[in-house]
Fold this sequence. Notes:
The structure holds two protein chains of two kinds.
Chain A: E1 14-19, H1 24-36, E2 41-45, H2 55-60, E3 66-73, H3 74-87, E4 94-99, E5 104-108, E6 114-117, E7 122-124, E8 131-139, E9 144-149
Chain B: E1 6-16, E2 21-28, E3 42-49, E4 52-59, E5 69-74, H1 82-89, E6 95-99, E7 113-119, H2 124-135, E8 140-146, H3 155-161, E9 166-170, E10 191-196, H4 199-211, E11 219-222, E12 235-239, E13 245-248, H5 254-260, E14 278-287, H6 295-300, E15 303-305, E16 310-317
Parallel strand pairs in B: 7-8, 7-10, 8-9, 10-11, 12-16
Antiparallel strand pairs in B: 1-2, 1-6, 2-5, 3-4, 3-6, 12-13, 14-15, 14-16
Amino acid sequence: MIQDHSSLIEGKRKFLFCADPEGARSLYILVRQAMDENVPFDFQIFLEESEEGFVDEWFSQQKMGAYLYISGKTDFVKRIQGEAIKAGFSEHDLQLLTIGPVKKRLVCCTCHAESEVSEQTHIICAYCGQELEVSDHYSRRLDAYLGYVNIK
Amino acid sequence: MHRNSTLDIRIKSIKQETATIKRFTLQALNESKLPPFSGGSHITTYLPEKSGTLERSYSVFNLSEPGLIEVAVRLAEPSTGGSEYWHHYVSEGDVLKVSYPKNHFSLSFQAKHHVFYAAGIGITPFLSMMAELAEENQSFELHYAAKSKEQCAFFDYLIQTYPGQCHFYFSEGEKPDRLSPNLLTDHRIGTHVYFCGPEKMINEFTSAAKSYGYPAFNVHYERFSPPVLKDSVPFAVTLKQSGKHLNVPADQSLLDVLRENGIDIPYSCRVGGCGTCEVKVAEGEINHYDSFLTEKQQSSNQMMLSCVSRGKGNLVLDI
Lengths: 152, 319
């Protein structure tokens, strides 16, 4: 979901950088750029989940024009993204960078059961046996990708 | 859908809201109710002028009893015919043709907070939007500019119905106050903003929102009239399927020329806001003046809204 993490998105009034220890390094170049360009920013590195308690308050105090980068392992990114959406951020106000294996949910178009997938392009649905292609068709409501039938 | 069908309505009552604004309450001819509408909707009215039928669109609201539709019309100086007709030729009891309600200015489903910016008669779409949000207990505020309290339509209604949520800016009088786009800097994350007023106001607020970092997704606006083109020049189009060649004069839109030549392009708002009159472009360069297509769609050079956008030289249309 991160479009280009070598350069900050333009025209924002403030940046929020939010990372776990694995994700922090990938944000340094962006933080550096914000410092050079004198754009205000907050940078938080969370060492463990128990430290994330104030995230909802941190996010909901932000004004329009703020932009959020979340970087870290897949569970961390998902958790923080959930808090951001709850506070009012939309996909137009944030970018995600996942370090290491990605975990995503796939909905079977035949039986609607959900499977967990990582980098695979095809899986067999464990519930109905249908071969599914992992699409990039994402449902915000289900937080899942659609698994299509592969027509040969 | 109801694209070409119309409703006959009767003018139930007319109320002078300010020196230049009248409110018209419309009812169904029989005892039935007029169709419901969502916040931000409008109707097109068909006015039987001597020279032909005038089509004019107005935002709809209903501050009266259920089943009615209300519009407010400001007498424009100079009028292009619509407001003059409403003010001077429409009386209580008259029957007129109107379209079913349509909505090109709807509320966001995702907003945490809605902020409305109105100038003058630009208040009208917000009347129905605020009613909808109030019913759903959602968070909103209004910033409304007028020349004075006397010229501020619905002032008493607004202050009584939404106390604490309305802010007024009167440019004339003892303490002149101006509605400033600086207010945009202070809205919480998740705010959607809505602008309605004269062209200049909409331009000022949309460009301020962009400069403060608002994504286009959070910014909504409605124009009353097509953007003013100071240096409009003629151009020509070739229709790929029939090979027909048509000239579009400086003072006419592509949509008008196509329709005059028997090509039935559907249309609705005619101000570049709804996307109904989009045509596919096969060749040629386009000057886009709409507020509907995304920047990416505009730069693809493959489509244009025929009501406002124009060609440079010759265009080949895929119709």
